[in-house]
Amino acid sequence: MTDKQPILNGAYYGPSIPPPPAPKQTYHRPGRGGGIGCCCGCLFNCLLSLICKLIFTVVVIIGIAVLIVWLIFRPNKVKFHVTEATLTQFNYTNNTLRYDLALNMTVRNPNKRIGIYYDRIEARAFYEDQRFDTQFPSPFYQGHKNTSVLSPVFKGQQLLLLGAQELSDFNEDKNDGVYNIDVKLYLRLRFKFGVFKVGKFKPKIKCDLKVPLKTIGTSAAGVFETTRCDVDF
């Protein structure tokens, strides 16, 4: 005999329908290196790329600006010459050097659009790589395509310890009547481009001189020859 639900109010009701199963709750365990860490890594790479692009752009702009300035002003090195050198005393006795050396140096600015401020000038005199005097010529401004003259005078006495080889070189110079004296200039410069003043440059100037000793109005070893100096920026 088949079981049937009773007829209620003219309607037939079949077997009851069970309720739908409750949704299964899942738990996600965050993995290592994912999620926020991945986003941070992407952000770091983006910032690094942006910084590199900015640096590259700035370098390009500076390079273009320097090229434009160079094309406009065409800078050339300043030229230094020692045109006169008068040595009236250069004696070495008892480890003491007594000297009297006067120089005339020409400083030529060959630039058409660049002026130069010589803010500091230090002139040093050397014999056998030992300094025996220092002078400080007055600072000055040099205009375009202009030649200026420096006239340092080294006079006095200085303790100088010469070894056997250096003493032999001194006696050889004494016999020849011509002394190998080095004069170096240590400068601090600024350049003027139009209304702009640029930089604090510190070039070094080296002049290798062969100076004849002058006695009683004449030089026993000839006349000093104009010498060009080396400029090191």
Automatic annotation (TrEMBL):
Membrane topology summary: Single-pass membrane protein
A single GO cellular-component term on record: plasmodesma
Compartments in which it is found: Membrane
Ranges of residues in domain Late embryogenesis abundant protein LEA-2 subgroup: 105-208
Transmembrane regions: 54-73
Region Disordered, annotated ranges: 1-28
Pfam families: LEA_2
Domain of life (superkingdom): Eukaryota
Keywords for the protein's UniProt record, in alphabetical order: Membrane, Transmembrane, Transmembrane helix
Leader sequence residues: none
Chain segments annotated as coiled-coil in the UniProt record: none
BP-aspect Gene Ontology terms: defense response to other organism
Protein name as catalogued: Late embryogenesis abundant protein
Chief place of localization: membrane
